[in-house]
Amino acid sequence: MEDTFETLDQNVKTEFNPEQKKPLTPNAIKGMVFGIISILSSGFVITGFIFAIMAFSYSSKDMPTVKSDPIKYRSSGSMLKAGRICASVGLPISALYILYYIWFFSSGIYTMY
Q1: pTM
Q2: What pLDDT, in 10s, does the model give residues 12-34?
Q3: Is residue 14 assigned to a domain?
Q4: Crossing angle for the helix pair 47-68 and 74-107, to the nearest 10 degrees
Q5: Is residue 7 part of a domain?
């Protein structure tokens, strides 16, 4: 029990070394946000389709940067992947809604209501 508070304090200071914040690529957040918006707005006729294409384009712009240094841009890589996944979910949903609206208005069912 010869440890004093000074030696304990020195041990804690040497062991605790916070990592620096990882930089984000400029389009990582845009790609993820547009991917999420593409899912949310896929029920509207064309907006989900447009946002999904925008998410794909923004995330593909920064993929070479992330692949060049994956350790430095680790959080950007996961955001880009999340944006691409959300866009790949929103795009078919939007396409299905577009096909549904085409079928709905071409079949004349809307006149029955």
Answers
A1: 0.73
A2: 555 444 566 677 888 899 999 99
A3: no
A4: 160
A5: no
- The DSSP annotation for 18-85 comes to PPPPPP--TTHHHHHHHHHHHHHTTTSTTHHHHHHHHHHHHHHHHHHHHHH-TTTTHHHHHHHHHHHH
The set of residues, in sequence order, having a beta carbon less than 8 Å from that of 110 and lying 6+ positions away, is 104
Q: What is the DSSP letter of 108?
A: T
Burial class, 63, CB count within 10 angstroms (exposed 0-12 / middle 13-18 / buried 19+): middle
Q: Which residue has the tokens 């866009």?
A: 87
Q: How many domains does the chain have?
A: 1
Calpha distance 50→34 (Å, rounded): 9
Residue 85 lies in a domain: yes
3-state DSSP call for residue 104?
helix
Q: 63 is in which domain, residue-wise?
A: 23-112
State the CB neighbour count (10 A cutoff) for residue 88. 14
